[in-house]
Amino acid sequence: MNQRSSRPSGHPVTHSSPRRPLTATARREVLENGVILLTHEARDSPSVAIRASLRAGSAEEEPGHAGLASFTARMLRRGMEGRGAEEIADAVESLGASFSLWAGSEEAALSAKCLGADVEAVLDLLRGCLEAPTFPQVEIHRMRGETLTSLREMEDSTRTQADLRAHALLYPPEHPYSRASVGTKESVEAIDRDALVGFHATCYRPVGMIVSLAGDFDSDVVRRHLGAWLRGRAGERASDHPVTPRAAPTRVNLSMPHKTQADIVLALPAIPRQHPDYQALNMANLILGSLGLMGRLGERVRDQQGMAYSVQSRLSARLWAGDWMANAGVHPDNVEPAIASIRAEVRRLREEPVTATEFDDARANMIGAMPLRLETNDGRAGYLLNTEYYGLGLDYMERYPEIIGSLTPEDLTRAARLYLDPDQVAVVVAGPVGDGA
Amino acid sequence: MSDAIETRLDNGLKVLLQPSHHAPVVSTWIWYKVGSRNERSGITGISHWVEHMLFKGTERLAKGDVFRLIARHGGHNNAFTSEDFTCYFETLPAVAWKLALEIEADRMVNASFAPDEVASERTVILAERNGSENSPGFQLSEEMGAASFRVHPYRWSVIGNACDLRTITRDELYHHYRTYYAPTNAVLVIAGDIEPEAALAEVRERFAGIAPGPSPPPVTAEEPPQWGERRVAVRRPGSAANLHVAFHIPAVSHPDIYPLILMDAILSGGKSVSWSGGGYMGRSARLYRALVQKELATSVGSGLRASLDPNLFSVSLTVRDGVAPETAEAALLAELARMGEEPPTEIEIVKALRQSEAQFAYGRDGVTSQAFALGYFEHLGDWRNLNHHMERLLAVTAAEVQRVAATYLTESGRIVGWFFPTNRRDQVMK
């Protein structure tokens, strides 16, 4: 049997600095076409992770064209000058590479992976999709059917329905954050080729486009390729869409009688990523519903009360605004007790300071997790994109310990009191529950 | 190429060490050879429940401590139960990596299984099951499992049947734990910024004193041959009609597994055999072209379950609006039959191999993925097979791909499962 008799808690928490600091080898440059290029070359893996983002999200849609941004992004790979959808797929997959293009509220985004030797070929293909999509009629028809099926799947998901309604309650209907970027059945049926061509012509421009690469490639080669992307497409960077979400202290039941479990969402307005209160609120939320096995919420609703397998909270601090949402999947009989427990934990966070242990653990976690996130090419490409997307600075990782180290437990309590009021939550329950409150 | 160092302690624990100095990170995994295949009716889901209980306290660690301790170092951890194995992992900064050893050595033998924790976890697991039941895909997969296996434990899902989850006792859980959680039934894998000798000394310090443990009972269930097509249908409210077709294939140790892997890649793109990997590569593959491009389905996929006992190769699709289910089924079955009627082209094979090679490379990015791959291959036979994986795939011929398709993708050996959304009359087959 095991010999040790003391609790294994004596590990001092020290933070190792990465062998080759990312910021020592990462580069940021603005190319002549306005593309912002971030690169990190590394030879520890033969692969390359590519990410890109541009302001071609649903925020750029005209009223009545819901879903156009998403449809356009997904159509880009379905045909370009000189190659049909099949040929594009064949070209990329013959290399053992893969990519996806999609659009959300704020952005159209790209994610790709390939072997280092194939980076140029893949960038060429991606350029063709982004610059010269042909939107073939037959592919539009196919995509429409696929999208309508996705919409039905969303309609049948308790989690998605609760989440969507919560967003609709917090944000004004004219703002993209209030709705799914994929659109509705009616709006998707109305999308035609002219609309796709028009949206692409208006929104796909290089100024302000962010591209990040991490892995085994040559920066000079990549720079040459990307400097030519979307060249000649003039126009300013798309404008911002500020919004102030409002609390909606209401209760909505979405009856889906054929489901076994109910999904609950509790939602509050919060802050955008660049807000000065972000770090404090983020750490407070970590303690509330995320750290370890889903923070205090996991401890109470899952561990102690056994009511849920999945219960947590997240802070979505986005570009133009933010929100806080807790969610849980529970048996219909446990809906009210679960809501009460979550509310009680939010109240406790406001009324009592976090314990020294909780605070130390959260701080240690946030600082310690950063080097682990930067271990893989995926992690590095994502980090680089993120720092640019939110204007954090390429050296964010180096400043991060100090930023987090400057927080105090009082900062967390203050943030909780400002933004997390359990009496103001919008509560949405989707599942085998009755309609109405 | 993996140059892992293998050691076996006197108590039977196999240890695989993979030094990797690209980043100051270490990933530690422990794999126990126990999963749903080791269960019987009455205690289905017990292996998964034992996994849960290993987080609910030992004599020294309070419940929640495992997550808390890992989190305070910025690490991440999790655990999984499958049909064949249960594994636990911790990925930590190198300075704190030994915490993983302390945790795993402790809970290998000292988990408490306190009655009130068992009771509380019962409802958590029932909630986990209920959440899965919300998904039509899960409902169909349970019916498919039951139809595919008349005898073998693979017939029930890893989460277990609700009636068993309601009645399994603390003593049954503890007995299951003591039977299967022992050094002789475990493999410890460590990949990352370690020096092998020093790391091995740390392992010995914590694990060498643990008694070898009992020899677990062998799994004697053998699925008899299937002599005719089986069909199941789930008719419930949902979003779209879904078709699953499964075929019996041999266990992972059988030489036909590699031709089957290549066959699968030709049908729906190369896949990763590790934790991380590349995305979907099936848009230029046969199934997508025959079903999605021809507007019969909105999505299609395939995969094979490589496991210790004979398992299944499966294909699934979502029917497109306006298409009769019978039409989609006929097209899918015809495409599968084609694989057995003529060999794939050289171009198809080259593409499938290239994708598999790329996926294999992507799967080696990061020590968590490296450690996973070692443990996974070890559990399926021998970790050294990881080093021979691509060479084995490269040796498969077109004729072999055709032969395995003809041998295994047969009408009498298939199980056809449909989910029909009762709220969509146009998507229901009589």
Walk me through the structure:
The complex is a heterodimer of chains A (437) and B (430). Chain A is globular. In chain A, helix 10 (278-289) packs across helix 16, helix 12 (335-351) crosses helix 16 and helix 13 (356-373) runs antiparallel to helix 15 (396-405). Chain A starts with 21 loop residues before the first helix and ends in a 6-residue tail after the last strand. Chain A is 43% helix and 19% strand. Chain A has helices at 22-25, 68-75, 85-93, 119-131, 137-155, 158-170, 185-190, 193-203, 219-226, 278-289, 291-304, 335-351, 356-373, 377-389, 396-405, 409-419, and strands at residues 26-30, 36-41, 47-54, 79-80, 83-84, 98-103, 108-115, 210-215, 251-255, 262-269, 308-317, 322-330, 426-431. Chain A has 16 helices and 13 strands. In chain A, the strands form 3 sheets. Chain A has a 6-stranded mixed sheet, sandwiched between helices. In chain A, strands 9-13-10-12-11 form a 5-stranded mixed sheet, with helices on both faces. In chain A, a hairpin with a 4-residue loop joins strand 11 (308-317) and strand 12. With 437 residues, chain A is an alpha+beta fold. In chain B, 41% of the residues lie in helices and 18% in strands. In chain B, helix 9 (257-268) packs across helix 15 and helix 10 packs antiparallel against helix 11 (325-341).
